[in-house]
Structures are given as C-alpha cells and as structure tokens.
Amino acid sequence: MALTNLLLNLIFPPRCPFCNSPVDRALSAPCPKCRQADFWLEGAQVVTPGTAFLRCVCAGWYRGALRESMRRFKFQDHPDYAKAYGPVLARIIRDYLPGSYDLITWVPVSPATLKERGYDQARLLAEETAKALSTQAVPLLAKTGKNKAQSSLAQGSQRWKNVAGVYSVPDPAAVAGQRILLIDDILTTGATLEEAARTLRRAGATQVVAAAFCRTPRKEI
Fold it and tell me: Taking a C-beta distance cutoff of 8 angstroms, is the pair 65, 34 a contact?
C-alpha cells in the first residue's frame, strides 16, 4: 500500500486544495502559505446580517486563489475538497455562532444538477463541517426544480426572482420548533440563503442562522 501511494504521488503529485500548489503530502487543511493568505475574513467581516436568517458567517473572500479553489470544488470534480473546507468553517461557527442552533442542514442543489455533477457540494460541505463540530447534518430542504445558476445572473433583483419558491420542506415535523444552522458554499447577494431560510421558517423553524464558506466582495456583486 505504501509503495502504491508513493507511485501515485509521483504520477499525480498532491496539491493544496486551496491554492493548488504542489505539497509534500495530501492535505485536508490549508498549506502553510494559505494559512497566512489575505483571503480569510476577520472580525466584523465574518458576519453578514440577514432577514429570514438572523446572521451568516463566512470563512473567506470569494476571490483569487480561494475563488479558483471553490470553482474546482463545484465544477471540476473535486468533492474531496470538502474535507479541507469543513474544519475551517467549523472553527468559524464555533467562534461566531455558539449555542445558536439545534440542527445543521444545507441548501440543496436540484435533482438535475445532482445528476449532472454527481454530488451536492453544499451537502458535502455541511457533512464535513458537522463532523468537525462532532454532530451530523440532516436533510431538511428539497429543491423542487432546476432554475438558472445564480452565478449566471448579473443583477441582484434577477437572483432574488430566480430562487423564489424553489425550495420545500418534505417533513415539516422535523423542522418545527427547531433552531437551524443552514450551510451553503458561497454568499453573494444572500438571495439563495434568504429563500431557503424563509422556507424553513414557514415550516416552523424558530430561528435560522447560516454559514457559507466564501463571501463575494461587495464590489463584485
């Protein structure tokens, strides 16, 4: 097994999941260079207030190397990146959302996207984050159809209309009376998280807080 791993590393050198630079061994955390990178959020930058969700916390800016990392995660068949993202997001949740949720769930992709991509990146992120928090993520939301990709829409008003009514709660009894931590990969205008949180609140959730791995800088929205 050790020889096999050595040969694989020679043919396919391991790379940092964040900056994609070659590293000595496979990493499930930022490499030393990335730990000091300027794409991590600090202090007040971490928290974004919401309406249907009380607040959303984010780990980093969706720009530069972190943006490219997220794009590889979502679109270039790198579901393994979730193992590196999860502990990072879990640390932010511990610091900024302590004691504010009973259940962890995620914003699901549509069945068509799941079939095409082969995995739901938000679910993987939620599961790895929950694991780092010594709990489990549970499916509470369903996406009822395939809308346009939010990233394809330039205007915020288009993004809000695009997600209106696309989520449902298959089992309202699992949501009623619960405080929910809702996880997604990227926060841009907040339209997706707001719609998903609103759906949970209508099903009886008493509170929704959110966490996204990245936040788009305001000037890029």
Answer: yes
